[in-house]
Amino acid sequence: MSFNTFGHLFRVTTWGESHGPAIGATVDGCPPGIALEAEMLQHWLDRRKPGTSKYTTQRREADAVRILSGVYEGHTTGTPIQLMIENTDQRSKDYGDIAEKFRPGHADITYWQKYGIRDPRGGGRSSARETASRVAAGGVAREVLKALAPELRITGYMVAMGTLAIDRSAMDMDEIERNPFWVPDAGAAAEWANYLDRLRKEGNSVGAICEVVISGAPAGLGAPVYAKLDTELAAAMISINAVKGVEIGEGMNAARLTGVENADEITMGADGPIYGSNHAGGILGGISTGQDIVVRFAVKPTSSILAPRQTITKSGNPAEIITKGRHDPCVGIRAVPVGEAMAACVILDHLLLHRAQVGEGPRGQIG
Amino acid sequence: MSFNTFGHLFRVTTWGESHGPAIGATVDGCPPGIALEAEMLQHWLDRRKPGTSKYTTQRREADAVRILSGVYEGHTTGTPIQLMIENTDQRSKDYGDIAEKFRPGHADITYWQKYGIRDPRGGGRSSARETASRVAAGGVAREVLKALAPELRITGYMVAMGTLAIDRSAMDMDEIERNPFWVPDAGAAAEWANYLDRLRKEGNSVGAICEVVISGAPAGLGAPVYAKLDTELAAAMISINAVKGVEIGEGMNAARLTGVENADEITMGADGPIYGSNHAGGILGGISTGQDIVVRFAVKPTSSILAPRQTITKSGNPAEIITKGRHDPCVGIRAVPVGEAMAACVILDHLLLHRAQVGEGPRGQIG
Amino acid sequence: MSFNTFGHLFRVTTWGESHGPAIGATVDGCPPGIALEAEMLQHWLDRRKPGTSKYTTQRREADAVRILSGVYEGHTTGTPIQLMIENTDQRSKDYGDIAEKFRPGHADITYWQKYGIRDPRGGGRSSARETASRVAAGGVAREVLKALAPELRITGYMVAMGTLAIDRSAMDMDEIERNPFWVPDAGAAAEWANYLDRLRKEGNSVGAICEVVISGAPAGLGAPVYAKLDTELAAAMISINAVKGVEIGEGMNAARLTGVENADEITMGADGPIYGSNHAGGILGGISTGQDIVVRFAVKPTSSILAPRQTITKSGNPAEIITKGRHDPCVGIRAVPVGEAMAACVILDHLLLHRAQVGEGPRGQIG
Amino acid sequence: MSFNTFGHLFRVTTWGESHGPAIGATVDGCPPGIALEAEMLQHWLDRRKPGTSKYTTQRREADAVRILSGVYEGHTTGTPIQLMIENTDQRSKDYGDIAEKFRPGHADITYWQKYGIRDPRGGGRSSARETASRVAAGGVAREVLKALAPELRITGYMVAMGTLAIDRSAMDMDEIERNPFWVPDAGAAAEWANYLDRLRKEGNSVGAICEVVISGAPAGLGAPVYAKLDTELAAAMISINAVKGVEIGEGMNAARLTGVENADEITMGADGPIYGSNHAGGILGGISTGQDIVVRFAVKPTSSILAPRQTITKSGNPAEIITKGRHDPCVGIRAVPVGEAMAACVILDHLLLHRAQVGEGPRGQIG
Fold this sequence. Notes:
4 copies of one chain form a homotetramer.
Chain A: E1 5-6, E2 11-16, E3 22-28, H1 38-48, E4 65-67, E5 71-72, E6 75-76, E7 81-86, H2 108-115, H3 130-148, E8 153-161, E9 164-165, H4 186-201, E10 208-215, H5 229-238, E11 243-248, H6 259-262, E12 266-269, E13 272-275, E14 283-284, E15 287-288, E16 293-299, E17 309-312, E18 318-321, H7 332-357
Antiparallel strand pairs in A: 1-2, 2-3, 3-7, 4-7, 5-6, 8-9, 8-10, 10-16, 11-16, 12-13, 14-15, 17-18
């Protein structure tokens, strides 16, 4: 990862500001011959799109993606794919106050300190709007994965919002698409709606935890020791706006386990090794085991809130700030499709890296 | 990060296996004219060195580092610095069993699946021995930081081991060097000693949480959006052997907070902005604020344990495994100096990146 | 350099095909606070623009560049700059034949062999149209150079076309802008016009040699040993379409010299070392000396010609090919502004790399 | 390429100074399971070794290479391979004068200006001794190529020395190993011996042109547009010490050709396309055609000569310099195996890049 590019071989460079004319992603290194149409990407963008429920920002963006290059007669050519999304609903006047005052918990102050200039309209480059570009690029990765690893599935969902969490014993993946929280638990969805309504009306916001599971990934992905698969997934997730923590498998809880508890015992199945548990989250020594890969990340509460907070102005004067404008009361909700997109990009990148160094598929046979 | 290299401009490539003739690090991009002697690096290696207490592996390694290049008359020349540590205490016979059986929770099986060949002696490349190279390279980074950011301090310590945690109200940084756990709490140190003794005698092991604090870092470090400072610190930590989770500031707990609670309010001090709290862990929008930078990571329990576990052999036959040899009952202990070293490398790398793009120091003035 | 990106810190990723909706460049790592307007870039694009004389392709493109991101109120923000040029004059029907037959000397066949798919319209990604993106990005680099190295000048011109060459004793840099060949020799310009007219009427084309001189560059630029300044300039130039050879200073002729002849003797001037000659082309050991940096490159003749040549079809059948369409009789002419643009990008990238590792300006004093 | 690393996936980082304890290369990204022993690398190092004839430096170095990591039981493991060559014959006293005076045409002055410090012993990092590391790494690449592309051959030789050149009509590849100049022309070898003897006795030196031919490379290698195969080969060659020009196929002479002359006409053979000529040097649009890949580079004369030249000291005082010590009268001779090694690294890197993006072999069929 480097400035605005991530990935080694499947490389995504995103560009654009919240209230500029457009945002987008330049996708380089894509394998050729993959069927690709804008509609395939639109499907994923629509999931992240603002304004789809009262729990997300009321900004109205079509988020219509155009493919400007790299595709000929409906197939990728192996040359760079330019994905552009025009910004259409920029009400910059909403943000006048922010040009002078720094929002506590927001990147306003650090962008100013670092660069000495920033586009304050809608948070400029630091806006979560940048994540639409990630979703578009992730859509490309998903189409390639369909061809290279047809068994692979990537599923994201929320597991906690504020002080509320799902009941893992009641998880039902079919519920994910049925509620505005992408939560695999119908009971939680109802409860969370009330909770977030209340916070929203208070002009407050709240954090969340998202989980992404990658099933059907082959064993052998990951490039130890500095491009381990867990390292790269973690980096991908924590690069998403507002993410403050990331976990693989047991995550922070691994600290509480003993070696006896943590060992995922192995037996031999018809198609290869079978594990008695998955504390490892599908990754050992930075390389995938073939089990489900499980990554989880915490999203902090939106820092643009209506409740007044103490801050300073550019001139160093004390000020109180109330952030008007249209903000997500829980930005974690829209982080779910972003996390999925990042996972798709990382897994594809490592499929390509593995194919480069080792060839097709895992190398060492068992049994 | 890429295969065995990390860093953008201050680039460290580590090499070597646990029981090969030597391990080491090639450090490229180091600024010239920095005073550097092997003894300066040895200081840090001695902290990570095995065999210093009964709570770490009893392998006896001098871990003596030699500088083979890049230094002339005691100063760096700007050319690559080769750091070599010879392996002296390799009792490979201890590991015979491991060549055929896969340790549950260990990289044995995935290295085999990925590469179709692996050096089983002491875990080969997947051994935590690799982290000695990181500590040596981190020692170089620290000497450069002394010159470029003399106020900067990097302090690592343990905050939890298994089910035990420190009492943050009783933290005393002077205690860190006084106990074998690098724990800033004398009471915890005594309690942990009993706890780990018991586990060790049972042939078991346990996880831990380490925290690294960087104080005195200037505002403005970090390269959004894919080389954010938190992204890079997180990636650096989770690339360390056995790390399963990583947190910046509030970390996973940020999910539980509301926007009102999470906002670190700002006032103006004599030397710049002052924050009323540090939920952000010193980083906003991927850029340092000038506050303490706080990163935390969970280390899983050592998977090489004496307690018997079910596994399979390379041939796919069921087997029971007991890992003899000399292992750390809590590998998290020796992860503390490694986490510090990684922090030093990341911060230096970003000082150089910032200097490249923006020039010396932060750009935007406040007040 | 990597797929479609070049540069270490000032990183340019170009995208787009000859006859797609648009082409462009994503410029990352640009220093903040630099005055930048589309008009500044248009100036350079207009020099490369097709259809400005009868010696270049008659395709009519406005080559109007838009800045979609990274600039706020007329200044760069340090975030990625997206430069887009819409394609307006794509007469794809002209190229029907090329979809089936491979042009000798053209990338048609290798793109097909590599990717199994290609956009044949106007050469797709392999078209020299891609170089417009380079010129736009180079325009950004020039504006940054104005701020960081105001003394620096980059001047490109042609020194040979086919069997004709300039008379170096008659060189007059003021002539460069006065003729359609960017040739610093009024006599040559007249002669070359006749020569190229004749070739054009025959349906033939011809090669050329371009030279780019960078004056006013500080001593100390270049990152030995694999990012030497000459390595990077050479790579930049030979990455331009149709370039087959590249030289620094004496270039290939250095092979003919003795050590006595080749030594650029040094004396001390008021402002530093003065060299009695410049066989080195301003670079020693991969690092700039402060002298003029001189790079030269040979451009092969356009392979799309009206004269019939033997070839095969995709099906492997023999065929004769005559390439209609609108082609440059000497593509080397329009390579001049491209070479200048690449030089600007490389020099800026190395100014930033040097500033990162060593700080501002050269480090070692003389005298 | 970046500082001291080259390659994208097969990445080589070299380190070490002429008169330090050792030099070496860290080779990362090597495919696993390749048979590799130190003797295989030694074979190539012995060809480059100094002191093998009176036409090379009389420094006596065994150039014995040790493999410190990445190989287990005689096969590569996919982890980094550390190659170390100890320096044994460093007579640093020979170089006393150079610490104060700058040799005209040498990197002495620029290393000083850039870094403000340099290791003057034997030229330090700027010494051609660094190329031994390249040859060792190239030896690894050759062993991998044997497995991945068994038909591939890499052959380097000299085609010109000073004002003398080979007679291409008399070329006999079997002669290459029979003379100290690696020249495929017995007549030239005799003539060159006299010529170089004379220059050597005068305390002078001379330049040379080397050519490297890669035969048997598959079509489809190269990653347009900034990692074109010709770009990467050119960069690899010009990164070698003292190289001032580089050519692919016709090279600089391509400028003199018309499109009719330059077109390599295509017919269909039993195994694929056949080209009537090879002006392209086996590369079109940056991608290999399957023909012989031909790259040529000019090496300037050694700048360390016994003939007196005018220069200055570090203090800026005028001085005359005569460089004693043991120097190559024609450093181009020992550049031949270095050029071969670089070619091996580039080709392997691109085989891996191609395998990553496109899979095994070329994709598009003809016929």
